[in-house]
Batch of 2 targets.
Target 1
Amino acid sequence: MAHPDDPEMFCGGTIALLTRRGLQVSYVLLTSGDKGSDDRTVTNQGLVQRREEEQRAAAARLKVAEVVFLHHPDGELEDTPNIRREIVREIRRFRPELVLSTDPARIYARGVNHRDHRVAGILTLDAVFPGARNHRYFPELLSAGWEPHAVKEVWLAGPHEPDLEFNIDAVYDDRVAAVACHRSQIGDLDKFYQRVKENREKQEGPMTEKFKRLRFG
Ligand SMILES: [Zn+2]
């Protein structure tokens, strides 16, 4: 995904469900969120350090095994072969059955879906298929020992056309606690918890997270 906080904001409940089942989950973040603050007294480097710490804390809260930061500039993600190669390398390293990313087809919902989310989605899809599984893509990775790997499924969060939905009631508090680790993004904690409470009360039926599911034969 693009930014620190994206995993928790988009699908923290689902990640909690996966790790509760004993599945190993790792994050690969393309940026470290260096544009995610209006505070002019904070340097970009200071923000990166803070957001990476917040992301590691949130990941630990959801029992995520490892967090990798690729350190591309926030807000400037482009669909380039270099970034695609890096994602292919991470897929060949972690060798996941399932990859979660953000849906590139969703340009807007209530507001604009951040360009980085869309670009991260398209980069990830193209890295999964066919980049990671075909040894002829990025032969320099093969020379470096990164053998091809075929991902079985991709779930796209924030989906334009959802076809997969999880009830996250059982892990909702874990999700909220993980989102709350991103203090630089949520501001006042009391107000945050108040908003969470109101949203939950407004919700008819269970809290859910939705995805577009892609399966590769
Ligand atoms: Zn984001």
Note: The two ends are 24 Å apart (CA to CA).
Target 2
Amino acid sequence: MVNQVSLSPDGPLVSDVIYGTWRLLADEPRPTVADLASRFELCLELGITTLDTAEIYGRYTVEAAIGEVFRARPDLRDRFTLVTKCGIDVPSEEKATARLPHYNASADNLVACAEKSLRLLQVDCIDVLLVHRPDWLCRADDTAAGLNRLIAEGKIRHAGVSNYTWHQYELLSACVDRPLVTNQIEASLLRMDALYDGTLAQCEQRGVRPMAWSPLAGGRLFDPQNEAAVRVRRCLDGLRDKYDGAADDALAFAWVMAHPSRPVTIIGTNQPDRIRSQARASQIRLDRQDWYALWEAAQGHSVP
Ligand SMILES: NC(=O)c1ccc[n+]([C@@H]2O[C@H](COP(=O)([O-])OP(=O)(O)OC[C@H]3O[C@@H](n4cnc5c(N)ncnc54)[C@H](OP(=O)(O)O)[C@@H]3O)[C@@H](O)[C@H]2O)c1
């Protein structure tokens, strides 16, 4: 079973492997409400009790699809901690004034987006709202005012950010009434920036678990043309027996989760067998030298 953990000292309880919905509607034919409900049930059976979504996913269609599942199956809603994100505007029917893709983390926009998410998701309260991307034109106190208002009005329980540098996180933290509960960032064997740029160190210092998106590098880890991926997979294959037959994907998730900031990871597959496999990562503790062997395989050289 997937572990339940506290996201931050005053944060919500989440599963340390989360189900992500970026690609939820990507398959053809489009999954029905019943298909999605059975996928969510599988998650719950495995102990995956947290769903990650965003206003923009499926070009503003995924939140409504999740809402349809909750309408048909109200019993499912209460069993999930629901995370959504807002603040990315791309030209579309929903964003009539957007002439080009841009970020908008102003208070008024965050409040309007969160209120729309509540309607589409068909819920009374969002457990965790994340500012999807830092908006370089928005003052931190403006973004914070939106998050503070949403919490005060009971529309969201917790606030956090995504893709923030640690400086941006500190700046916003100084303005919010309640501590931010996470920074959702890209992290995988093929994307290690957060190890080096202070993002994970800051999470560790604050006792805030990062949420790692694209833990399989968006599938690039399985690309036979990608030399780093081929080296990593050779190394992963050699570890399988030692970790009780865990597949490459589970071990790659476990590599991300081993960092002392204790990242939680977000699953992106739509395939039930892969969901099962990746959920196993919650129970895997990689040996120090196996972790470094994978680092070495990814980088193509040993540690300096
Ligand atoms: N905050 C942000 O800015 C941000 C950005 C991106 C994503 N996210 C979140 O993170 C979640 C996960 O991201 P992601 O979808 O990029 O995760 P990922 O696990 O890195 O990539 C998923 C892709 O890898 C493929 N895949 C998964 N397991 C595989 C396996 N065992 N063998 C071969 N291919 C495999 C999947 O294809 P199949 O479906 O065919 O298995 C899918 O195309 C998203 O759903 C979203 O919730 C957040």
Note: The chain is about 40% helix and 15% strand.
